[in-house]
Amino acid sequence: MDIIWELFIILHANFIICISAQPNVPKIHEGWWAYKEVVQGSFVPVPSFWGLVNSAWNLCSVGKRQSPVNIETSHMIFDPFLTPIRLNTGGRKNICRREGGNADGPCQVGGTMYNTGRHVSLRMDKEHLVNISGGPMTYSHRLEEIRLHFGSEDGQGSEHLLNGQAFSGEVQLIHYNHELYTNYTEAAKSPNGLVIVSIFMKIAETSNAFLNRMLNRDTITRITYKNDAYLLTGLNIEEIYPETSSFITYDGSMTIPPCFETATWILMNKPVYITRMQMHSLRLLSQNQPSQIFLSMSDNVRPVQPLNNRCIRTNINFSMQGKDCPNNRAQKLQYRANISGQLLHKM
């Protein structure tokens, strides 16, 4: 019996030694990515490496319907079946209808604004629900989060490009399909899961009313460092939309890992404006915590991805009714972005 006990102790000790000798392999987790290289000595994958460091993110490298993209207005196709986008809040339909840019009633919402280290993120509370429908959507989608992308210099900072030109920033309103899925996490990896409304930002003398609430000095200074948070209430969600019912849409992906190709993008055909001081305040936000070196959150964008023959549709009627996507290549119409961000026909 003593011999058996001694043998057990020896085997147990060898097992412990073998386990402790295993190499300490760093765990790859869903938050291990960045938009740009850090300066603190540790490797964090930037966009060109997202699909290589984690097999769950392989779509970031091999996907064929990735976002963002460069919108070539000469390749857009008019779709007469794209209806206006409709908003409603609180589960009461049509209380906040957007048809021609007008609302039928107040669209009050609230949420918590975060410095995530990568974005300024406004995550909506569950008491004031905001749903959108119409446009390219078959189902109603619920607003989950608003993210801001912006550049370190004017004229860069938007993820999407318009005829090769970037804007100073981009607002992204991220919605999930609440009719088919129980939450955002489930919808993000499922067919027809997400709808993302994108609005370009430009610098002007005055500011969009909704963004002014987010970016005024008393608010933005509350989220200077990573993980800072600040509660905002009494926001009118209708105010974040520009005064236009025109938009561009295409099928794409999330622009962050794991780059699931489950998103329908809707790009509004007019920008919103913030002041130069508000843009400066955004650039002073740190993607690190106070104890770490300051690194501006700006330039938090993924580079544009190949279009791969996807169809870019619009409800802007350029006398192209009756044409479908395969015939789109034959169209020779040329468009440009004017100073207000609207698309103009170049004769």
Automatic annotation (TrEMBL):
BP-aspect Gene Ontology terms: one-carbon metabolic process
Keywords: Signal
Alphabetized SUPFAM superfamilies for the sequence: Carbonic anhydrase (SSF51069)
GO terms for MF: carbonate dehydratase activity; zinc ion binding
Annotated Alpha-carbonic anhydrase domain residues: 31-316
Stored Pfam families: Carb_anhydrase
Secretion signal, residue range per the UniProt entry: 1-21
Tagged with keyword Transmembrane: no
Function: Does not have a catalytic activity.
Family: Belongs to the alpha-carbonic anhydrase family.
Protein name: Alpha-carbonic anhydrase domain-containing protein
Source organism of the structure: Oncorhynchus tshawytscha
